[in-house]
Amino acid sequence: MVRGSISAMEDDMLISRMMLSACNLDAMLPEGVSCFRKRMHEYEEFSKKKDKTKASMAAMKKEIDEFVEKEKAWVTKVHELTSRHEVELNDLKKRMEADRLQLKAADKETLNVQQKAFLEENEGLKASLAQATSDNQ
């Protein structure tokens, strides 16, 4: 068993040596360096875009937070105005009801005065009619 693993290691070593001897590392090195530079440039561009996106998102988040604060202020203002309107409307309804009751009482009083005047005039006419008929007889 130990001999099998040693022979496998020797096989791996032989394969690595064959690959290294078959490859021209001197020719591959500049290509690898240029490929590395290209990938690094792509990474830098990606990092710049990522940073710009983060900054843009932070600005948008700040703007959204400002809008949320403004919306809360508007909701509070609308609620306050609605409450004030309801109070004023209730006061107006109470005043209108009181005025209506006063007018009703005043109308009753006026009607009573007019009825009294009518009855007095009617009595006066009846008395005049009775006197005229008694004079005619």
Largest sheet: none
Q: Are there runs of 5+ residues with pLDDT below 50, and where?
A: none
Mean pLDDT reading: 86
Regarding quaternary structure, what we see is single chain
Order of helices and strands: HH
How much is the radius of gyration in Å? 54 Å
Derived from helix and strand composition plus strand pairing, the structural class reads mainly alpha
General shape: rod-shaped
The end-to-end distance, rounded to whole angstroms, is 166 Å
Tally of strands: 0
Topology of this structure?
Layout: H1 2-22, H2 25-136
Task: Fill in the keyword field for this structure.
137 residues; 0% strand; rod-shaped; 2 helices; 97% helix
Description:
It is a single chain. The protein has 137 residues and is mainly α. It has helices spanning 2-22, 25-136. The longest helix is centred in the middle third of the chain and has 112 residues, at 25-136. The radius of gyration is 54 Å and the shape is rod-shaped. The termini are far apart. The relative contact order is 0.03.
Could you give a short description of this structure?
Helix content is 97%, strand content 0%. The protein has helices spanning 2-22, 25-136.
